[in-house]
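Students often ask why we bother encoding 3D structure as a string. The short answer is that it lets us treat folding as translation between two languages. Here is a chain of 92 residues written in the first language.
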Amino acid sequence: MNGVRGEVVVRLAGGERRLCLTLGSLAEIETGLGVEGLGGVAERMRALSGRDLMVVLAALLRGGGEDGSAAEAVQPREAAEAVARAFAAAAG
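And here it is in the second language, the structure alphabet:
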């Protein structure tokens, strides 16, 4: 794990996974949520649907070098906690 890059390792669906908010994952999140720019992402993140949460998690997994399809087996609470940790690491 590279904390300087904002990577986090989280436990998802019984396994450890690496998440990272990269420029590529941010672009994927914007596209997946149908918004433009950081402001649009921030606004949408305030009230994500279950589908939106999985879009964000899959993008963060791919940003960390993982297979984004791993998001499919994750419980919503687990996904929300992982996404929050990834964004906190990127901000820190």
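Translate back mentally: The mean pLDDT is 90. Keep this in mind for the problem set.
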